[in-house]
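Can anyone check this?
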Amino acid sequence: MSTLTTFPPASPVVASPYAAVFIDFENVYYFLKNHYLDPQDPHDYALDLVRALRDALKREYSLDPLVLNAYADFDKIPTGPQGPLYLMGVSTRNVLGTDHKNAADMQLCIDALEVLYTRPAIGTFVLVAGDRDYIPVLQHLRRQARQVKVVGFRESISGDLLQMLGQEHFIDARELLPAERLQMLEDHRTSRLRQGEAIRRLREQGMVGVQSAAARQAAQDAVSLAATPSAAATEESAGSVPAPRPAARPSMLEQLLEPPATFAPIRRITRSDERRCLEFLLEQMQRFGSQQATPEIWASPFLRRLTDVLPELPDWERRQLLSHLRDAGAVRLEKREGEPHPFSVILVNYQHPDVRELNPGPPEEK
């Protein structure tokens, strides 16, 4: 009599409320930087995306992300997003990359498989990435009866990956970004494309290259000087918004080649935390700004010192305050070349009415 080997019935798959999120942060950062043509601080938009994804998983999918990992060669990303990621509960994996391949791919796949076999309570895996290199690990996760979702931008997601996974498991990153932040990116890209098209037409007409480098530099200096508030302007009454000073208008060619940095349109600052941030910024500008040829202070050290002034706010909200001041036309952020990485500086619009109320003038220049 033959004995048949019997196997125990398979355990039913129970829906799990827990998720593991793996973020190819380097991929997201360079997509934002390249697709939107070098916007100001692309890492801030990447952080907005991570924050919005974490909140959307809880709100819309009832998922609790127990594992949150971000992968990048963080030494190559300016201003160091690791601190804000840590405060969001995201563990960072610093993976040394190469010029030919994003080395984060392999480490991300290894960690995903480790979680699969060591954390059986986690039922959903979310990958913020879109390369077709991830197809094998995604297929393996699905064969192990795990739910899989992929987050990415349509332009960077692999068509093969979408076909394998199905549209219902894809989350569009654009729908996660706050509308006003996405609009700023789109406006920046549109402006850069128009500028590039205008320069291309001028080149075809033989107009670019007519002026010497010295002449272009002189025009740029004149534009910068015109954008600096005069001493007379800072002595006007604090209760009114001063009219813009007339300045020599640069030629179309000069505007296209060297578009002058300007402040955003002025609006009044009404929130108390934004006003406290501005007041502290002006104090710091008086203390440190006069040490520079142009009154300015470094953004990263300022944000660290702001922690002592607004300790009740998380790091990302303090950074957002600075963005709000920029959008209100009170400050401007500019990039500077430096070693080993570029850095951002803050410049104050001393013609802004709230700035004038809190501090009547810029720091004394040496």
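Reply from J.R.: I decoded it. The longest strand covers residues 64-72.
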